[in-house]
Amino acid sequence: MLLSQKIFIGLSLWTVFAILVSMSAGLEVLLTLELIGLLIIVELTSGLLSKGIRSRIEYFVYTGVLLFVVVVVRRIWLILS
Predict the structure, then answer these.
(1) pTM for this one?
(2) 1, 26, 35, 40: which could join 64 in a potential S-S bond, CB 3.0 to 4.6 Å?
């Protein structure tokens, strides 16, 4: 089994776990847990992945960070208003 397949399976299992945990908590918790999973995968596989696969994963990490910033700004806005 290829490393990229193992990463996909691991992230899929993490996603199922994150969905189960965040069912009552909401979408914001799900997005945060997914970002945590992506960051863990990037750190664990930083030296093992090819440049092409790493750049694809980093694209999802950057998207996750952007969504996390939106969640934080929304929370701050709700607290201040």
Answers:
(1) 0.81
(2) 35
How do residues 51-74 score in pLDDT, each as one tens digit?
888 888 889 899 999 999 999 999
Residue 39, both tokens: 């960051």
Residue 22 · residue 14 · CB < 8 Å:
no
Q: How many CB atoms lie within 10 A of CB 18?
A: 20
- Token representation of residue 28: 């914001």
Q: How far is CA 31 from CA 8, 15, 17, in A?
A: 17, 10, 12
**What contacts 15, CB < 8 A, 6 or more positions away?**
34, 37
Domain extent at residue 12: 3-80
Residue with tokens 């199922």: 16
Residue 23 CB-density burial (10 A; 0-12 exposed, 13-18 middle, 19+ buried): exposed
